[in-house]
Amino acid sequence: MHPGFVEIDAMKAAILREFKVPLTLEEVDQPKPGAHDVLIQVEACGVCHSDLHVADGDSPQLVPITKRPLILGHEIAGRVIEKGASVNHLQVGDRVGIPWVHWTCGECEFCREGKENLCVKQQITGVTVDGGYAEFVKAPASHALKIPEGLSCVDAAPLFCAGVTVYRALHQAKIQPGQRLAVFGVGGLGHLAVQIGQGLGAIVTAIDISDEKLAHARRLGASATLNAGTVNVVKEVRRAGGVHAALVTSAAKAAYDTALPCVRPTGMLLVVGLPSESLCFPAIQMAAPLAQVNEALHQLRSGQVSGRLVLVPR
Fold it and tell me: Tens of pLDDT along 127-137?
């Protein structure tokens, strides 16, 4: 090396330079970890639909905060090859994953409430900072999560966005064994929702318009499947008493229009897929039918009602 020059390691990465333009495979400088960071050799990175929205610049919420040039990718799994001086809980050689939430402040109201996904100062992997469509990625050690032995990086990577997203929704809904869960859309998120729901003991019904995806859902543990293109989903689900929770992973507004009437009184509609259109539901659908009067009184008697139940004579 010529005296006075500093050697900089390079890496290959897929770079987004302009919206709606194909990514370019380039050789760029390898990131250098700071005192609180780890440098990870990427072994797998999931391809999320959100990556497509970032690349196409069609999300009004993400466009203003998207750095360019940018390395996309936020479902990252790999191995720590270097760590900062202040990092103690991770060691070189550890396998870790990096999620959508790249960093949070730990101090704002949402962080203090345990809702760091809503942190007002958060950084987003593959949006505000470079992500995992590369050979190496730098990340705060505080948000790098160890991957258990026996789980490959290829299998682990999607869990750091799709898996976390649907698990959080089901966890917030407090799904209990024996409860009925409908999963609308058996794609990147939905196929994991079927497995996680089944793992939580729920009776899972998968809804899609693809027979191939529905067959996959059955192999993953769905108790029932419905093709929304050929059957009246609402009628079939309500015949079975409605569902305790309907989790919509589809970005189609029609999926929400179908999902809400499938939810039984006191049930929950879990909004995971984000359609570009506004969601609008008739207020009457939020009310309980007269036939549910005894159930409504039971909930009132046992203190289960936090607001006001309304009966409608239909």
Answer: 999 999 999 99
Cα–Cα distance for residue pair 269/81, rounded to 1 Å: 43
Tens-place pLDDT, residues 203-251 = 999 999 999 999 999 999 999 999 999 999 999 999 999 999 999 998 8
Of 158, 173, 191, the last residue of a domain is: 158
| Residues 224, 288 within the same domain | no
In angstroms, rounded to a whole number, what is the distance separating the alpha carbons of residues 135 and 146?
19
- Within 161-263, residue ranges assigned H as helices are 162-172, 190-199, 211-219, 233-239, 253-259
Extract the tokens encoding 286: 């939020």
Interhelix angle 211-219/190-199, nearest 10 degrees: 30
Domain that holds residue 308: 282-314
Specify burial of residue 136 (Cβ count, 10 A radius: 0-12, 13-18, 19+). Answer: buried
Q: Distance between CA atoms of 229 and 249, rounded to whole angstroms?
A: 17
The answer to whether residues 268 and 290 belong to one domain is no
Domain count, the chain: 3
The one-letter amino acid at 197: G
Where does residue 247 rank: exposed (0-12), middle (13-18), buried (19+ CB within 10 A)? buried
Single pTM value for the model: 0.82
Select from 158, 182, 201 the last residue of a domain: 158
Tokens of 53: 């929205």
Does 2 fall in a domain?
no
270 & 302 share domain: no
